[in-house]
Amino acid sequence: VAGYPSGNEPTGHLIIPKSVTYDGISYPVTSIDNKAFDGCSGLTSVTIPNSVTSIGEGAFASCSGLTSVTIPNSVISIGKGAFYECSGLTSVIIGNSVTEIGDIAFFGCSGLTSVNIPKSVTSIGDWAFYKCRGLTSVNIPNSVTSIGGNAFASCSGLTSIKVESGNSVYDSRENCNAIIKTAKNTLISGCKNTIITNSVTEIGDMAFFGCSGLTSVNRRLGVQGLQRLDERHHPQLRHLNR
Q: Which site among 50, 76, 98, 144 is 20 to 30 Å from 128 CA-CA?
């Protein structure tokens, strides 16, 4: 699907067909092209057929009226900025064949309250869920081996972050409510309920960026980067417990 005829912007519920017929020949719909429905603010919901394997870059970007999306099990990749700034989106169901969630895929989906990341996913791109302020919890399956920079930054509503046990690259040791890069003991993403454990030796840049409810930090001696965190990203912090 490449788009829609000029002057016929779709509104309401969009049903993408499983196949199209041209000159008497039926062709399966296997992808939604880059920017196919970019800026269709009148869309409220979309049905994606199980013939589609990829959702292109910016396919539904700035569809501010879109409230719910179900991504079928046939889809393997969600492209860069696929649902960028879909501020009205409250619910996303991601099918269990998706392996890649692209950069800024759900950037600015401020109304999103829940998202399931299936066990098929191996990669979450840079800024993928940035500014998804309605999210309250994130669960990272043990299949994920790559999380891009600031993937969950400015998700101010987050109270729970968990990495499934058995993940070879990341962990949430001691129920710390954070994502830690295991090999380097670096905390890369936290929330207002994060506990910084003894074994953490470094806090990554922007790990707590946008945690508007954060008022204090409990830390242990030897943790690097915490003063930088205080000065650059959290002027509301009034003290550091040592």
A: 50
